[in-house]
Specification:
The protein has about 260 residues and is α/β, with parallel strands linked by helices. The chain has ten helices and ten strands. The protein is about 40% helix and about 15% strand. The chain binds zinc ion.
Length: about 260
């Protein structure tokens, strides 16, 4: 390659890099995910959560039962209104790997997935991400779910870091509940690693409850992340626009019963 061509190529590369750097959001970030239905504990710390600028992804189960009186009120008037993300965590919170030892994927979908997903969809929630109850899945189910969900959250204790526009669709966040026995030292080392590598770190828990020390731990994590200028994201902020296009083409938004008739 002659020197003039080489110079032009290098200049073009720098120009393209600058353009993409300008267009991409802040890269150092944190995603917080919560499972189940303990909305009152979220509500109890609402002022603090508001003041941190935190965005959460809340994976909801038992939606059809409406077991808590303030359940739908909190979801619609606070959680959704403040632009947190709602994901899906099963209709009845069953362990898929156990259910599938004696049942087929279509019967799992009809029992565990569609009833709750249809109710949430008909209540106006645009659900794109799923968290497996007990973090349990089978390889066949994971493959099948790519057509229904963008991100699939599994259980893990190993640090995985994320960045924008990755083709990654399996999430393995760090569990923060006290009973998962991940020490503060591990959590803060992970935060330091994400900081140094300029990456996105993901956490998940269940309750924000002082009696379980979890909120105290959450709060000191939020404060540390904020002091280190991490940006807070919803999980669906991380969806790759290219993959999202193909996901949306085959997307399934159930609105009627027996949706498996069309598979
Ligand atoms: Zn759960």
């Amino acid at each position: 390659m002659n020197i003039r061509l080489l110079t032009i190529s290098v200049l073009l590369l720098i120009f393209t890099f600058r353009l993409s750097a300008q267009n991409s959001p802040a890269t150092r970030g944190a995603v917080f995910m919560i499972d189940d239905y303990y909305f009152e504990t979220f509500y109890n710390h609402y002022d603090y959560i508001q003041s941190t600028g935190l965005k959460m992804t809340y994976f909801v189960c038992y939606y059809p039962r409406d077991v808590y009186i303030p359940y739908k009120y909190i979801l619609a008037n606070i959680f959704d209104a403040d632009n947190h993300e709602l994901g899906f965590h099963g209709s009845y919170h069953i362990k898929s790997s156990f259910f599938l030892t004696e049942n087929t994927i279509p019967s799992y979908m009809n029992f565990e997935i569609f009833p709750g997903l249809m109710l949430m969809t008909s209540d106006g929630y645009d659900i794109s991400d799923f968290s497996y109850p007990y973090g349990a899945a089978t390889p066949n189910l994971i493959n099948f779910f790519y057509k229904y969900f963008y991100f699939q959250k599994l259980g893990s204790t190993r640090l995985t870091l994320y960045s924008f526009n990755e083709p990654k669709q399996i999430m393995s966040p760090i569990p923060t509940d006290e009973n998962y026995n991940i020490s503060d030292e591990v959590i803060y080392n992970d935060i330091d690693e994400a900081y140094e590598k300029n990456k996105i770190i993901a956490f998940y828990g269940h309750q924000l409850h002082d009696a379980k020390v979890t909120f105290t731990r959450f709060r000191s994590m939020f404060d540390t992340l904020k002091a280190k200028q991490f940006h807070f994201y919803r999980l669906d902020d991380l969806q790759n626009p290219q993959l999202q296009k193909s996901f949306l083409k085959t997307e399934f938004r159930p609105t009627k019963m027996n949706p498996l008739d069309s598979i």
